[in-house]
Design a protein that fits this description.
This protein is an all-alpha fold. It has helices spanning 15-27, 52-59, 68-79, 84-91, 96-103, 108-123.
Length: 124
Amino acid sequence: MPKTDPGFRTIPLDTRTIEALRDHRRRHREERLVFPDLKGTLFNPENQSKPLPSACDEAGLKEIRFHDLRHTYATLARRSWMDIKDLSVRLGHENVATTMNLYQHIPVDMARESAQSVADYILG
């Protein structure tokens, strides 16, 4: 359940994701839910973190929290030059300041690229 009204939102999806969801639906036509839990019932968001540590371990990756995926999404979205207001809406924040202060991690190469872009603009 979202914490605030902006948490209830419609998030536009890219064409690849839409096609992947359609393909998933075609392969699992008999299932009523798109992402059921292991019992085939409604997925409980409170249980979303439970399988992640073992999945990380099996993949030979450092263990992360499920919420870390949200931070990663925000960073990758900014790296792809998504507008900060658009990202804020997608994350369900009431204002852009929350997004900028808590979720936006600017990679060094992106900061350098921004600095170069400003210098190119100023110097013509």
